[in-house]
Amino acid sequence: MENIDDMVYSREVIEFTAVANEYCNLLEKSSELTGIQILKIMQRLLPLLYIKSVSLPPVEPINEEELEKFVSEDDWNRLHTIVISRLGEANDYQEVISESPINNGEEFCGSISENLSDIYQDLKDFLVRYRIGTIEIMNDSIWEINESFRLYWGQKLVNTLRAVHNALLEPDRIGIRKDEQAFDPGNIDTSDWIITKRQDNLGDEKE
C-alpha cells in the first residue's frame, strides 16, 4: 500500500486542491463580477475541476469520527444570494430526469446558483481540513471529497456546465446585455492563481 504521506501530497491531490481553491476564491468574489463574467469563467473552470476530481487517488478512511464542517448555513445562503442576484434570468434551467417507466422523462427547474453553492460547500470544507496539515485528516478529507463527488456534486457539476453552455448560446433570451456579451475571461489576470503558478513552474522545469 502506498505510503499515506505520498498519497496526500501527490501531484493529483495538489492540483485538485489548487483548482478547488480557485473555484472557491471566484465564488467568494462573485459580488465583484457580473453574471456573464461568472458564466464565462465557469465555462472554463468547471471542466478543469471535473478532470482534477476524477484524477484524485482512491484512499480509505482512517478515523471513525465524522469530519468537521466549516461552511455554515449562513455562509451558504449569503453566497447563494449573491450569485443568484448576479445571474438573474440565466440562473434557472430545465433539467430532465432520464426517461424510465417511473418518471417518463419528467422535467424540473434547476438552479445554477444553488449548484455552485453546493459544490462550494464541499470544496471549502475540504480545503479548510486539508490546510490543517494533519495527515490523517488530510487523508480522510480526500476520501470524503471522492465520495461526495461520486454520489452528489459530480452530477451537479455536469448539470451546471450544460446549463452554463446553453445560457451562453442564447444570451439575448436570458437578458444579457450586448456590452456584457463581449467579456473575454481570457483577459482576466490569473497570474496570482495557484494553478497558473503551478503551470509556470512545470514549464520552467521542462526548459
Helix-strand layout with pairing:
Layout (H helix, E strand, L loop, with lengths): L3 H5 L2 H18 L6 H20 L18 H15 L4 E5 L10 E5 H21 L2 H35 L8 H4 L12 H13 L1
How is the biggest beta sheet arranged?
A: 2 strands, antiparallel
Q: Please give the CATH architecture.
A: Up-down Bundle
Number of domains: 1
**Order of strands across the biggest sheet?**
1-2
Question: Helix- and strand-based class?
Answer: mainly alpha
Description:
With 207 residues, the chain is mainly alpha-helical. It has a single domain (4-206), classed as Four Helix Bundle (Hemerythrin (Met), subunit A). It is 63% helix and 5% strand. Strands 1-2 form a two-stranded antiparallel sheet. Helix 2 (11-28) packs antiparallel against helix 3 (35-54), helix 3 crosses helix 6 and helix 4 crosses helix 5. The two termini are 34 Å apart. 28% of the residues are buried.
